[in-house]
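Quick one: structure tokens for this chain, please?
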Amino acid sequence: MPDLSLIMLGAGDSTRFKHTVKKQWLRFGDEPLWLFATKNIMQKALFEDIIVTSHKDELDYMKKFSDELIFVHGGKNRQESLKNALLHVKTPYVLVSDIARACIDKEMLTRIIKEKGEADIIVPYIDVSDTVVYKDETIDRDDVKLIQTPQLSKTETLKKALAQNTIYTDDSSAVKSVGGSVKYVYGSKRAKKLTYFEDLEDLKCKESTSKDIFTGNGFDVHPFEKGKPMYLCGVKVHENIGFKAHSDGDVALHAIIDSLLGAIGAGDIGELFPDSDKNYENIDSKILLKNVFDFITKVGYKIINCDITIMAETPKLKEFKQQMSKTVSQILCLDPIKVNIKATTTEKLGFIGRKEGVAVNVTSTLKYIDWNDL
């Protein structure tokens, strides 16, 4: 049984990347970066457990990608995320890496693991080839090391080091602060960390983004309720006959949300906005759709189009269709031509024909955001 576990840190906000898509969700082929980087290390060594930290808003979605990995709620910084992950480590040694360092080669990993047990922490580094100036003074560049990950620690020593209140930029700094021993091994210039968008050019292992197209279907129904306004696609279409619902009841926006979530495999509207949650009582459904759009973008998808069919005997919707298309397209950052609204009746059949409510069916198509186009 392996005496080593792997922790992959991927809970950050990706603020320095400065794009609406988070770097950990950029697609290399058809895999998000966090999964690509994790598999890259998994394939080169044996681990008892593999633990991935995730931003709280993305944790449930990450879990849908693998049942082999342990997913852990990240903290407000790298150190808190690592402490959360260490709670799940049962082995005497732990290897900690950043998902942003996707191109770890086998030779580098072998050099690190070979030294396991030779110090409290094994730390890879690369040399500096340029002149180094520190506080306006030129210093000997041979005395400078650029520290990389993954770093291999004795688990209990790392836990002890992180129990302090001080925030450290890497594990070796924390281990040294409690008197732990450090052994440096040469890393790899291929193991470039993706921090800024420009760093993508230096990732030698990156793959072109998959051109796959994803289709999702959404269907929703709401009965009428008197004494409240009716909203469809974010547009008020009736003053005093609305929908019975926990939110404002915009059945069309709810169906759009389900179609988008279906396309990316993220469940349904009830999982994200349960009707048991008071925060969503009477909420404007445009807010819910905007939240879903932001999430879809962060995890690496671009919407191509939405085709919306509204089934209603009443009210008549012809005069509202253009405004509906405009409203939805603005939320989804699409041209209005890419949001099609169709209104039909059921020829007086069923609950719709009896004028008891409205049903909406939506088909949406999406694709991955291509890092080549950013």
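DSSP finds eleven helices and 19 strands in the chain.
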